[in-house]
Design brief:
heterodimer, A: 3 helices, flat
Chain lengths: 111, 363
Amino acid sequence: MSHTIFGKDVYNLNFGMLMVLTAIEVGAVAASVQSLITTQMVIFVLVSIGVVKFLGIAGVFMHLRMQDDSNILTLTALFPAGFIILMVIFIGLTSPGSPDALPAWCRPPGY
Amino acid sequence: MSNYSHDDDHDHPSAWGPHDWEHGAPHNSWAPVIMSLGIGVFLFSFAGTFVMNEARNGTDFNAGSLPMILVGLAIFFAGLIVWWRQDFSFDGTYEPKATGVPFQNIDMRKVGMWIFLWSEMMIFSSLFTTYIRYRLGIESCQAILDNHSITSSGLPFSPGDVCWVPASYFIAGSHSESWTISLGGIGLPDTLVPGAINTFALIVSSFTVVMALKTAHRTDLEHDVRSRKVRNYLLATMALATLFLTLKIIEWFFGFHVGPFDAPSLRDDHFSIYNEAYAFHGAGGHEVLEGVNLRLSASVFYVTTGTHGVHVLGGIIGLGYMSWKAHNGGYGPSNAVSIEYFGLYWHFVDLVWVLVFPAFYLY
């Protein structure tokens, strides 16, 4: 449990980073609402910070880094990740009305 | 901690239990298959219990699905009994190791927790996929106003038509009327305050779980002192989780009216799965789309954030038990893996919120 970066406890550092990044997220949206920054800019900030926070929690708090079994658990996580990518591409990015075009046998009754 | 040798060549454990743990952990249980089947039958039947009735703008109760719901529950509990028969004979004196590729020699419970979390990833991914699909596939109400820049009477939009209204319109948009917090000229709408507090609460709670585990591993503390500290960290986590759910309920149903804060609830704002005639105001507040159907926008929001809330509730129940166990001195340097594995679940709940918060509350 005792991992350090630059002499500081990695869990404390990660916690501090998550707090600061969340404050930036909220601040960016508040600035966007008052038209101080553009919508594109706030989306960029939210996605970038979301990725960093995701990695911070998964890598440090959930021990997907820094432990003996980290690599195998991380690699195995790619298994559901593959399905998720397929789901996003073939469902998330299709038209909402596309199920209407499905043949009757693969639609629930009444649809 | 003692280690038992795996005498697999001579020991043939029953797939139905009870199990002789002297020969290592069983790897041939039918319990997961039976329980999965039961849950599947239950969920398919449950999905047909409440049927949308368009005519009266509500739901009808379909009693015909009840028998199969009971069958599903019966199968599930049968699987649970098989699981208990195998596990009750275990005295917990050693941590069973996984033997299957690629998890050899990793704690079996840890592998189990990760596989559970991967299945959870699929659940939340399907919800996010639904969100992406509708968010990208349905024209936003604001875009309809922006593209046509004329009053509602001249718009190619009929009352009852569906256009997308993100929850952030009510929570973090210019729709909000009260702005109490202001830092450096940047104001924060009051409607966003509960969600922002919740985000910080979950991050802090992730850290308190880490502190509980670190404290449980400390050997420089007396047993009583260590147990008290571990219990307090777990109780702090539970308090933060309870705060999260409380603010969620306030945000949905009651509104946040504390001190100078004055934020209406989402229900007061008519952001409801039943609302098919909402008057959507444009960013300027002047133009209006009459009769916007909010059902789809609201359903995606409530189902996703509600599913996350159920996971927080499950965490609270687990934390209650663990706090009680810590109070009785149940955790120590050689016996703290339960906190670690619960921590994995709790960090996952935090991880999901990291995605839910910007996607649903901010954008």
